[in-house]
Design a protein that fits this description.
This protein is mainly alpha-helical and 174 residues long. It is built from 6 helices and 5 strands, in the order H-H-H-H-E-E-E-E-E-H-H. It has a 3-stranded antiparallel β-sheet, with no helix packed on it. Strands 3-4 form a two-stranded antiparallel ribbon.
């Protein structure tokens, strides 16, 4: 901009005196787990899902959700907004057609390239079939709703499922 002022393309350098601060969005974030860490986390979740107690249904949901994310590369907002009609059990694929916004409304994806079809392994599809049998029903027919059938915020999934797994695996502190 200073060059633009010198050559009379701009009247004033509006950026002069501006100081760019460090990006604080990544402070206090948990480290990204390695592939081995993810495998450990999924094993812990699987054990909790298969343990016969009042929490096993919760853990079945988390185990299925985290396994799908690990095997597909879906974004949290895409998993949270995933409807059953986008899960194609015959072709072992998921069609990404919508997501869940921060205000818990189901909406359109942000770009044309976000609309895509993702191949899913037979093992993950089997998990999804098992989950569908006990999945709460709701107006949006979501794959991972809350227990009332409504959209579930991913911050809840993280604080109630992902963080406890990481703590149990010794990856983060309480």
């Amino acid at each position: 901009l200073s060059e633009a002022v010198t050559t009379n393309w701009a009247v004033k350098n509006v950026a002069q005196g501006i100081v760019i601060l460090d990006d604080t969005r990544t402070e206090n974030r948990d480290p990204i787990p390695s592939i081995q860490d993810v495998q450990t986390l999924l094993q812990i979740a699987k054990g909790k899902a298969e343990h016969d107690n009042r929490f096993s249904k919760n853990w079945m949901r988390y185990y299925t959700l985290f396994t799908l994310m690990a095997g597909s590369g879906l974004r949290p907002c895409e998993v949270a907004g995933l409807p059953w009609k986008s899960v194609n059990f015959e072709s072992n694929a998921i069609h990404v057609t919508q997501d869940l916004n921060e205000d818990l409304t189901v909406g359109r994806l942000k770009s044309r390239s976000a609309y895509r079809t993702i191949p899913i392994s037979a093992n993950v599809m089997t998990l999804l079939k098992r989950w569908k049998l006990i999945c709460p029903k709701g107006p949006h027919k979501l794959v991972f709703p809350n227990w009332k059938g409504n959209p579930e915020s991913f911050s809840n999934v993280s604080s109630r499922g992902w963080k406890p797994l990481q703590i149990e695996a010794g990856l983060i502190q309480k």
